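Fold this sequence, please.
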Amino acid sequence: MSFPYSLDPNKEDNPYHPFPPESESLLSPSSAKVLHQKDGTREKGISKTTSLEDIEDEGSSSSFSHRKIAPINRYALAGAILASTNSVLLGYDIGVMSGAVLFIKEDMKITSTQVEILVGSLNVCSLIGSLASGKTSDWIGRRYTIILAAATFLIGAILMGLAPSYSILLVGRLIAGIGVGYSLMIAPVYVAELSPTLTRGFLTSLPEVFINIGILLGYISNYALSGLPETLNWRLMLGLAAVPAVVVAIGVLAMPESPRWLVMRGRRDEARKVLIKTSETKEEAELRLKEIVEAASFSLGGASSSSAWQGEGVWKEMIFRPSRQLRRILIAAIGVNFFMQASGNDAVVYYSPEVFRDAGIANRRQQVGVTVIMGLAKTSFVLISAFYLDKFGRRPLLLLGSIGMALSLAGLGLGSKYLQYSDEKPIWAIVLCVVAVCSAVSFFSIGLGPITWVYSSEIFPMKFRAQGSSLAISVNRLFFTKKKNMATAVDPQLNENTIEDGNSNKAGMNKYTLLCGLLASTSSILLGYDIGVMSGAVLFIKENLKITSTQVEILVGTLNVFSLIGSLASGKTSDYIGRRYTIVLAATTFLIGALLMGLAPSFPFLLAGRVVAGIGVGYALMIAPLYTAELSPAMSRGFLTSLPEVFITFGILIGYIFNYALSGLPAHINWRLMLGLAAVPAIGIGLGVMVMPESPRWLAMKGRLSEAKQVLGKISSTETEAELRYEEIVKAARPAREGWDGGPWVWKELLLSPSRPIRRMVVAAIGLNFFMQASGNDAVIYYCPEVFKAAGIHEKTHLFGVNVIMGLAKTSFVLFSALYLDKFGRRPLLLLGSAGMAISLAGLGLGSKFMESSSSRPTWALVLCIVAVCADVSFFSIGLGPVTWVYSSEIFPTRLRAQGTSLAISVNRLVSGAVSMTFLTISKEITFGGMFFVLGGVMVVATLFFFLFLPETKGKTLEEMETIFEDRTMSKCNNYRSMEMRPM
């Protein structure tokens, strides 16, 4: 294909385009002639693999720069990683400072203006480092400039950590800022000059990856150290930045110098040695050296003296009399750096605790806790971008990220406006603000974040690369500082002198209850691990056992179908032997199935193992949320009862990781290890549950009231609370005790002659579980390698790598939902997740349709498919995933809870089995695109169902549920405070 904006050397009046389609289009006439030779009726397009020398004014047309498959040279990768660790310094400061200022302000009694100066001073002085870095790196070399950056930041970090006063702290930040300025410019330039052409996008995006890792480490430090005294915690937060600075300074000594800088210095033999190490073959190294030497000669105009590259005249030529190509390069580099900071991303990250505070999260520890989840999401998406920059190109990811940020920031603005003008602070607006912030930083990490560094460091000719990158990064830091000042001017709430202590409405969580909830919920890891690991194992099972696609569907779906048996039996079983021993039974059954699968010599044997494991999964899915709901206080029941979904998601992530780790083993061993390793958590669960107490509600139903009272004493915060809960439980359990031996009356009351509230409970529970599986989420996860293969990713290790990233995104969002279920309520998160899934599935269907109907497989459609899959599972993890288990286990009265939950989970497993056993078959008939459009339609119906038939249960005791479902008062369904349901 040809790019419409490439320069045509035969046309003097070629229209000026301010932002080229790719950096590859910034060509000299000689390069354009080489790359635009006609081949039949089609021009040879400019690929994403243009070398740095092709971007400059020289005429190379090397063959190696147009290879389609590019293995990453390990030496180049090691050098890029070491250089990129320098960027951790800025990332750590951004992340840690967002929390540290809360404690600095309180400890030093400084004003909001002083806080602004403190935060902004680092970025103002980074401008000095950025401007000086070009000349410095041309003079002492790229490698020693990295050491200089780390050493300067180290001095600043030590001063900040030991600062006895505001003045010393400010001096420390000024010095650290100069180091940051050096590191921001030099890391991507060094990596770009070291990297082979075909992997330059990935390697040059590593600085942004390390910035995100630094932000995440800063958030984690905030959360871990926030409990220390205020005179100590912020000093540790800031002073710990010295550790990565020391590591960077020492590690860089093992790195080679940039071969392009060596050539500019006339040290060609040293450059050749470096290129041999960073190239796949000696021939490639020689060809790269030849191109670099030619480019250096062209850039210097054949000058033999070093004055031409040492900086004399560079700024004059670049600013006052640039050539047409150089002018376009400057506009592109300055523009992308300007918009990177004008987007407001770094300011949002710096002030994210204030953003979350204004959204209604008052407790400081909770504010920094949410930033950890935001950091996980941000890191997940920057990894996606880094891995696929060289496959998709710069433009598609940049445009996708920019559009996504625009939509996310519009959502954040809408939510913020409602919160500013509403006295009641509606929950939907709070949820929208938090999700929009996470979405905005995620889209930034897909596009502007990594691509700015890649683009700025690769497009300048050799003569101007250091100084040009320096100028672009200086613009970046300048507008970052201005933007932060604007943020505080526009939002006066950021200038408030007081910070709320965070006396949250949420009750303090009993540690014993939390421990029991965690232990019980670990049984759900069994299903999660199977979902994650089976998505990869089937690829090797199919190859090793030579089975058909129909047999694959049967193998995958069997576990879900037979989990129906466990779900149906679990109600009666848990009423008979107790909740605790039912968890042990679930783990034991799954353990037997896992061993059978791991040792299976044939397909029938493997199928038998999945049948047994499925029964264990059925027991686990019903009993874990039920036990946790019966143990939990009303004010923290949402969080604790959502833990099973957290562990399902965590199990999926572990399964993905094992897929990736074991995929390199022989095909007859790897899948057996993948499946057999599920026995390990099953053993741990079976033993761990033995130290847990029995459910106090089950004990009360059995007439063991003194034991129930003892358990309540342990799981309640006060004796008064324990007594109150005891009275409610005994009263609610009386009908169950009186009819305990009747058994069949339970099913009769549930299905044949239910009262009005029971009928509404049954409809709500069954409907919720039906739509959870009809959404196709489990099938998408089971078959996501097939989905990604259809999207054009065929390498198995790449498939598993994308799975791991998807698992990280899914885990991040389910943690967010779990933490805030009791604050926002069930309905808002459920409606948000369902609507988001509908939109994501529509996007996935659109991308898949284009991929299926187009022979060229457009890159934008490929990107859309991957992002839509990740968005789909993330929205599932916000809403349907955790809320289904919470809601199903809490709404039924004590006498019907076990059997009612059993019935709901049975519907869940039946639909899951049907979907997973027919997903591939239906997709072959109507295509993947058609299937995803159908699932999107299902989610639209689901959203309407949830809106009409599910009342809010937040903050209500289990004994109050019948009152909620009995209430005949009609209210507006959009009133999230009352959350009353329409009559049926």
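The beta strands are 38-39, 42-43. The two ends are 59 Å apart (CA to CA).
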